[in-house]
Amino acid sequence: MHRSDRRRTGFPFRSLATLLLVALPQTPALARPFTVAVSDRDGAPLAGVAIYFEAVDSAVMPAGAAAAASMDQVNLEFVPRLLVIQRGAEVDFPNSDTVSHHVYSFSAPKAFTLPLYKGEEHSPVRFEQPGVVILGCNIHDRMVGYILVVDTPYFAISDATGQAVVDGLPPGDYRLAAWSPEFNDSLPEMLGRLSMAPALESVSMRIDRLRSAPPAAGNSSLVWGEY
């Protein structure tokens, strides 16, 4: 079954993915884990794809502050490379490396800079606008990280088997969306509208928005042992 919703949601709609709904035995109409199986056009599992559910009825959204998160720096890499957070969340940027880093972003949802540091010298950064925030290091050009800010607490990232498990998803009507750094543009894809009935516990989706090859990492512009 392939259902689409072309209503405006803040991101352009593209029908480049196929959804397959899988109904399992009846369960109580309570919030529960929900599994999304993500694969490419040939059916191979896709890891590292962020998926999220936006409630059509805002009453479904739980009250309370967005959960805080952390993006570390280890071995000249952002860890995790892709982080998903709810709008309004604060993110810590500790530096666990043996060298200093200078974290910055010029992305429209959140432009900021954390000058050269080690350890935990800077206060958390709050992200108030939805969208994709691309991070870099002003010292090491090959360091690239991504933060996807969404208007929902219902999200997950697919693992090595292509499985993404969203916890605590209550019954209701949702718009399902996905994004990955390997997509061929920087905008999340709205996959369609999904009605979460008690019998529905999983969905499979195939995505056809990948680059022909992941972008190659550049070389560091500066090679310093200690600074």
Keywords:
227 residues, mainly beta, 2 domains, five-stranded mixed sheet, four-stranded mixed sheet, globular, disordered N terminus
Topology overview:
Blueprint: E1 17-23, E2 32-40, E3 50-55, E4 69-70, E5 72-74, E6 77-79, E7 82-86, E8 90-92, E9 101-105, E10 112-117, E11 125-126, E12 131-137, E13 144-150, E14 155-157, E15 163-169, E16 172-179, E17 189-196, E18 200-207
Parallel strand pairs: 2-18, 4-8, 7-13
Antiparallel strand pairs: 1-18, 2-15, 3-14, 3-16, 5-6, 8-11, 9-10, 9-12, 12-13, 16-17
Give a verbal description of the structure:
The chain is mainly β and 227 residues long. Strand 12 (131-137) and strand 13 form a beta hairpin. It starts with 16 loop residues before the first strand and ends in a 20-residue tail after the last strand. The protein contains no helices and 18 strands.
